[in-house]
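USER: I would love a firmer grasp of how sequence relates to backbone shape in proteins. This is the protein in question:
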Amino acid sequence: MKWYVENAGISFAQTLLTEFWNDVDRLCAMPTIGRKTNISGRHEIRVFISNKKCLIKYWYNTRTLYVVDIVFADTHSPRFF
């Protein structure tokens, strides 16, 4: 987020953060909307793109959504996934 504040402005960073939290709320309500990944592990990791600049990696059970990683990027590239 610091990069966005310094390079894109505080207003843009605040909008990005607000959209991120809205997407986390959306994932809590509908966790299956994220795309399944091939990441092996104990849980099925899913990914969801928030605002084309933020990739949210998460898993869930019947009661809780667990955010595993948040990746911010300037562009939409295959390496983003």
